[in-house]
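Is this the right way to post structure tokens for a design question? Let me know if I should format differently. Anyway, here goes:
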């Protein structure tokens, strides 16, 4: 077993765990890292790997927010309670949250299934990634400047309507089309524009990632097939496990950070990274 390739997979896991949740584009960072330290695998496997590694990050969301997303929970004792059986354990507020999440997934799911391969052929290149990094970095700066001192209209997950969820899903669609946009970045920007508070925008973005990434990963595995070599399995599991551990730390950090700070620092970081990508691939790499 090649320990060097496993070490690379672990580093990919670190990058995924950090960049998936911070609004700075995991795709942009993956492209850069793969340029300097590529995995010695087939193009087909790497295309699958960079998507399926996200499952590790998603499991971190499930673990951290389990009580907020699992609809079956033991109700508190109340002698006046009428409902009995399984339905008495069902939390309708969480059921409604999942319905809104599914509504928000519709735009990206429909367009992604129909045009995923075409989008990859057209837009999965360093120029698109760099431009998306810079454009959404500027968007963060503008939106945060405009919203400074203003009170958000939506301050809890329960206040998100089905219409609002669908509009947030449209912003997620932008990330599905243009790599470098950042799925979390696009949905957070969209939510902020629509009057959602930073904390609620981040939480809804985390939850929205669960069905999106599970669906994308399943699609990639089916396209790749289930014929893995032992080394490929080891690389995939290493990346996912590391992404899971790092994601736990990053999500907790981000939820604490945004309670006291805005997203401007991520906007500046995106702009700088976009310029670095353009300079490297446009000048140095040539």
């Amino acid at each position: 077993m090649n320990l060097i390739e496993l070490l690379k997979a672990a580093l990919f896991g670190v990058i995924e765990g950090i960049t998936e949740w911070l609004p700075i584009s995991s795709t942009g960072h993956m492209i850069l890292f793969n340029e300097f330290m590529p995995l010695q695998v087939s193009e087909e496997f790497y295309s699958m790997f960079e998507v399926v590694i996200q499952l590790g990050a998603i499991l971190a969301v499930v673990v951290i927010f389990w009580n907020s997303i699992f609809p079956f929970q033991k109700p508190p004792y109340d002698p006046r309670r009428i409902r009995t059986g399984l339905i008495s354990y069902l939390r309708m507020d969480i059921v409604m949250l999942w319905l809104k999440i599914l509504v928000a997934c519709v735009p990206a799911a429909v367009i992604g299934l129909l045009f995923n391969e075409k989008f990859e052929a057209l837009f999965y290149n360093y120029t698109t990634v760099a431009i998306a990094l810079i454009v959404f970095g500027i968007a963060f700066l503008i939106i945060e400047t405009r919203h400074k001192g203003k009170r958000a209209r939506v301050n809890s997950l329960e206040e998100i309507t089905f219409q609002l969820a669908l509009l947030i899903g449209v912003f997620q669609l932008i990330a599905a089309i243009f790599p470098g946009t950042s799925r979390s970045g696009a949905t957070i920007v969209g939510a902020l524009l629509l009057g959602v508070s930073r904390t609620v925008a981040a939480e809804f973005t985390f939850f929205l990632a669960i069905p999106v990434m599970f669906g994308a990963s399943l699609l990639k595995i089916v396209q790749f097939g289930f014929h893995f070599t032992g080394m490929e399995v080891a690389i995939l599991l290493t990346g996912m496990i590391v992404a899971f551990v790092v994601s736990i730390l990053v999500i907790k950090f981000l939820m604490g950070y945004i309670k006291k700070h805005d997203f401007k620092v991520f906007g500046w970081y995106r702009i700088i990274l976009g310029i670095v990508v353009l300079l490297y691939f446009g000048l140095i790499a040539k």
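Format looks fine. Someone answered above. Worth noting: The chain has twelve helices and no strands. Residues 3-73+88-284 form one domain.
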